[in-house]
Specification:
Blueprint: E1 4-7, H1 11-23, E2 27-33, H2 40-44, E3 47-52, H3 63-73, E4 77-79, H4 89-98, E5 101-102, H5 107-114, H6 116-125, E6 133-134, H7 141-151, E7 155-163, E8 166-171, H8 174-192, E9 197-201, E10 207-215, E11 221-233, E12 236-242, H9 249-265, E13 270-278, E14 284-290, H10 297-304, H11 308-316, E15 333-340, E16 342-343, E17 349-350, E18 353-354, E19 357-359, E20 364-365, E21 371-376, E22 383-384, E23 391-399, H12 403-420, E24 422-424, H13 430-438, H14 440-443, H15 451-455, H16 467-492, E25 505-510, E26 513-522, E27 525-530, E28 536-540, E29 548-554, E30 562-571, E31 574-579, E32 582-589, H17 591-597, E33 611-613, E34 618-623, E35 630-631, E36 636-642, E37 645-650, E38 655-660, E39 667-668, E40 673-677
Parallel strand pairs: 1-2, 1-4, 2-3, 4-5
Antiparallel strand pairs: 6-9, 7-8, 7-9, 10-11, 10-13, 11-12, 12-15, 13-14, 15-23, 16-17, 18-22, 19-24, 20-21, 21-23, 25-26, 25-32, 26-27, 27-28, 28-29, 29-30, 30-31, 31-32, 33-40, 34-36, 34-39, 35-38, 36-37, 38-40
Helix pairs in contact: 4-5, 7-8, 12-13
């Protein structure tokens, strides 16, 4: 058996591998860049080796430095995680030459499946359904436009060596094909060191469904069910689940058998994933094969009970699989939400900084039988760097049972876990994930890869509370305010025989909505009485200083008593409440003060309409205009690179450039001025 594993990766996947290795009694070695010196995976490993400067091109993907760390520590195996060198055949070959086990497939399989053009040809020969497209390499933007037009729009422009949504663009016309070709080429070269591009037909109303395969070195290859990965943004998966709410047993079997056929065609061993695009009629087409562990592997582990990392290690050590295809059973339903350091209120642009608060929900089994799991590589006080992928954690929820009932139970468990997840210090997508869990379309399983674009066409601007949510949050705000006032009255003590009396009648303003609330305490609970709508019975234990609290709510219009987790921040006289994707400021006033406040003028935000501000921290790679240029709406003005992604900044309206302040190559902070217009 393997004695010491070096994990050639970072973040949550490095931590994930270390956990299984420790369970198996195997020593671990972490590697790190200067930016990751104090990272969680470094703290968890038995040994750690510095690789170099922060950029991955000078540390994590420098093959010679990883080999040097292996020699230094005497590791006899390497787990590559995903990304970085995980699908680099030269890395696998170098390990083989060193006599070190690669915890992944063989060199030939990586080479065959790592090139998307070659992989599609092999898939077709193996009898796997493939998407129509141009499988040759494309030299320039003119050729890309010509090929895209011949295939018929829409098309998908993709990096041959790509993955993780990098180097991918959808084009609906010639202009988008031209721009998408260059952006994909630039991203591919930056992320993979390989800028080869190809084009294929984009299947409309598609679902992204993938099959997990597992093969040993003794000829046994199995499939472990499917994962639905259709909730994507910019071709990057955001929410995944297993099984898929769309597939029937017959389609699942057909997809699984084709995935196994492809794996056998290239002599595949280890864990791997065959990705398919599935249309509304359950026709499925081969997309690509990832010759590594997938980010979303936990949902498969939760529904099969199989530790994929353990199986990869055992296969690399030469062991046979201890189970057969008939032994693989799908149990319950699992959902994964990717917590990204991306600000959903700024079109999901990357965010960096210190995690001033990081409190994940409690892992393990709940009273209803659901399970919460959180795979993470960060900790409170740690830094989110601009150099790497913006993923902070992968929150998973599993519920027992089968069918639609099990899925809804898993969705509800995920919603509760998201509400209980506390993250401060950076922009993050928790409110967006919470909002999706509440949407009827998602809860019904009506998914496509266009889900986010269709449901949030103008971006995410938070969730507007309905009447029931307004009453609920008004009651919470009033209770919080009352508790603060009662503590203040206790601290101030009494003057003579008099003590300040805390009132019971309040006016709560939530955004632009006002609710008159009267609080009455009886038998260990608080009853919130409203002028409009049913009263609420609330049991809660919030005390001043607490940032998150649970409230159990009873009301005539609720189907059942429910317990919710609300994040609470006191900011001056304002109470910030966050729950179920809602992020709202509440002001609680006496009736007289509320009456006077209605006459106060509203402070308007500063006018920035004639400025181009940097929407995220990053490097300004290109400025495409100069002083005096007349720009049109939609025209690209500049490009900012952050967290390995290019972001084009476009003109919102016609204007003339008055001055350009920033220069190419400059590092910019959020809202830093780039240019002004007349």
């Amino acid at each position: 058996m393997i004695k010491k594993i070096l994990i050639a990766n970072r973040g949550e996947i490095a931590c994930r591998v270390i956990k299984t290795a420790k369970k198996m009694g195997i020593a671990t070695v972490a590697v790190y860049s200067d930016a990751d010196r104090d990272a969680l995976h470094v703290k968890m490993a038995d040994e750690a080796v510095r690789l170099g400067p922060a950029p991955s091109s000078q540390s994590y993907i420098v093959l010679e430095k990883i080999i040097g760390a292996i020699r230094q520590t005497g590791a006899d195996a390497v787990h590559p995680g995903y990304g970085f060198l995980s699908e680099n055949s030269a890395f696998a070959a170098a390990l083989e030459a060193e006599g070190v086990a690669f915890i992944g497939p063989g060199v030939a399989a990586i080479e065959a499946m790592g090139d998307k053009i070659t992989s599609k040809k092999i898939a077709a020969e193996a009898g796997v359904n493939t998407v129509p497209g141009h499988m040759g390499l494309i030299e320039n933007a003119d050729e890309a436009v010509r090929i895209a037009s011949s295939i018929g729009y829409p098309v998908m422009i993709k990096a041959s060596a790509g993955g993780g949504g990098k180097g991918m663009r959808i084009a609906w016309n010639d202009q988008e094909a031209r721009e998408g070709f260059q952006s994909s080429k630039n991203e591919a070269k930056s992320s993979f060191g390989d800028d080869r591009i190809f084009i294929e037909k984009f299947v409309t109303q598609p679902r992204h469904i993938e099959i997990q395969v597992l093969g040993d070195k003794h000829g046994t290859t199995l499939y472990l069910g499917e994962r639905e990965c259709s909730i994507q943004r910019r071709n990057q998966k955001v929410i995944e689940e297993a099984p898929s709410p769309f597939l029937d047993p017959e389609t699942r079997k057909a997809m699984g058998e084709q995935a196994v056929a492809l794996a056998k065609a290239v002599g595949y061993h280890s864990a791997g994933t065959v990705e398919f695009i599935v249309d509304g009629e359950k026709n499925f087409y081969f997309l690509e094969m990832n010759t590594r562990l997938q980010v979303e592997h936990p949902v498969t582990e939760l529904i099969t009970g199989i530790d994929l990392v353990e199986q990869m290690i055992r296969i690399a050590a030469g062991e046979k699989l201890s189970f057969a295809q008939d032994d693989v059973k799908l149990n319950g339903w699992a959902i994964e939400s990717r917590l990204y350091a991306e600000d959903p209120y700024r079109n999901f642009l990357p965010s960096i900084g210190r995690l001033t608060r990081y409190r994940p929900p409690e892992e393990g089994e709940a009273a209803d039988g659901s399970i919460v799991r959180n795979d993470t590589g960060v900790y409170e006080g740690g830094e989110i760097s601009m150099y790497y992928d913006p993923m902070v954690a992968k929150l998973c929820a599993w519920a027992p049972g089968e069918g639609a009932g099990a899925r809804l139970a898993a969705v509800d468990a995920m919603a509760r876990a998201l509400d209980d997840f506390e993250v401060e210090g950076i922009g993050h997508n928790l409110p967006f994930l919470s909002a999706v869990m509440q949407q009827e379309r998602f809860r019904e399983g009506r998914l496509t890869t266009a889900y986010i674009a269709e449901e949030f066409p103008d971006g995410f601007h938070g969730v507007e509370p309905d009447a029931a949510a307004v009453r609920l949050l008004a009651a919470v705000a009033a209770i919080v305010h009352r508790n603060v006032q009662e503590r203040a009255s206790t601290i101030s003590g009494t003057v003579g025989n008099h003590r300040r009396v805390v009132g019971s009648k309040w006016v709560v303003k939530l955004g632009s909505i006002e609710e008159a609330v009267t609080l009455r305490t009886e038998e260990g609970k608080t009853v919130a009485l409203f002028e409009n709508g049913p009263n609420l019975s609330v049991i809660g234990s919030w005390v001043p200083g607490q940032r998150h609290a649970l409230f159990t709510i009873d009301a005539p219009d609720l189907a059942a008593r429910r317990t919710i987790g609300v994040k609470i921040d006191l900011i001056g006289s304002c109470i910030r409440l966050r729950w179920a994707g809602i992020d709202i400021a509440a002001r609680v006033r006496s009736q007289r003060v509320a009456e006077l406040a209605r006459h106060m003028p509203v402070k308007l935000p500063p006018d920035t309409s004639k400025m181009l501000l940097c929407p995220m921290p990053g490097v300004l790679t290109v400025v495409t205009v100069k002083v005096g240029d007349k720009v049109e709406a939609g025209q690209t003005l500049a490009t900012v690179e952050a967290m390995k992604m290019e972001n084009s900044l476009k003109a919102e309206r016609q204007a003339i450039v008055k001055r350009v302040v920033a220069t190419s190559g400059q590092s910019l902070a959020v809202d830093e001025l780039i240019m002004e217009f007349e």
